[in-house]
């Protein structure tokens, strides 16, 4: 079977070609390197997804597409009608309710970029954190 001899020779030829091209990055295989055409297609696809994501909530009232405003409504409910709030198991419902909103915010997030924003620094994360802190304070009373 000549195929087992052919594969290492092909790899060696590709490696040698990459090293001579000056565009070789040690640790990356040729399979991981994108051609300029592939990079352009990827960027166009990414731009289309980001553009579509901006349109998702354009026909939604601002009170219902902003995580901080949604959480304020739940905080008001909890303060005005604590029994009803508790009976509705809101703490179990909030993750499912906020999931689509958070996912839209994370579409463009890339933790592999050099200048990426930490999750803890994102406004929606801080809003949820503040809501959780407010809930813990009211429960401790």
Automatic annotation (TrEMBL):
It holds the Pfam family GCFC. Residues 16-46 are annotated as: Disordered. It is found in: Nucleus. Residues 29-41 have a biased composition (Acidic residues). GO terms for cellular component: nucleus. Residues 68-129 form the GCF C-terminal domain. GO terms for molecular function: DNA binding. Its main location: nucleus. InterPro entries: GCFC2-like, GCFC_dom. The keyword Transcription regulation does not apply. Keywords: Nucleus. It comes from the Eukaryota. One of its GO terms (biological process) is mRNA splicing, via spliceosome. Residues 16-28 have a biased composition (Basic and acidic residues). PANTHER family: GC-RICH SEQUENCE DNA-BINDING FACTOR, INTRON LARGE COMPLEX COMPONENT GCFC2. Belongs to the GCF family. This is GCFC2 factor. It comes from Molothrus ater. The lineage of its organism: Eukaryota, Metazoa, Chordata, Craniata, Vertebrata.
């Amino acid at each position: 079977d000549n195929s087992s001899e052919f594969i290492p020779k092909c790899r060696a030829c590709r490696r040698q070609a990459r090293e001579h091209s000056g565009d070789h990055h040690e640790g990356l295989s040729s399979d991981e390197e994108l051609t300029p055409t592939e990079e352009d297609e990827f960027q166009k696809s990414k731009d289309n997804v980001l553009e579509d994501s901006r349109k998702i909530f354009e026909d939604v009232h601002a009170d219902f597409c902003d995580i901080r405003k949604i959480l304020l409504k739940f905080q008001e409910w909890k303060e005005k009608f604590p029994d009803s709030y508790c009976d509705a198991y809101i703490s179990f419902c909030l993750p499912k309710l906020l999931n689509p909103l958070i996912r839209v915010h994370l579409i463009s997030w890339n933790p592999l970029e050099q200048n990426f924003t930490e999750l803890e620094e994102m406004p929606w994360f801080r809003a949820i954190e503040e809501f959780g802190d407010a809930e813990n304070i009211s429960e401790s009373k």
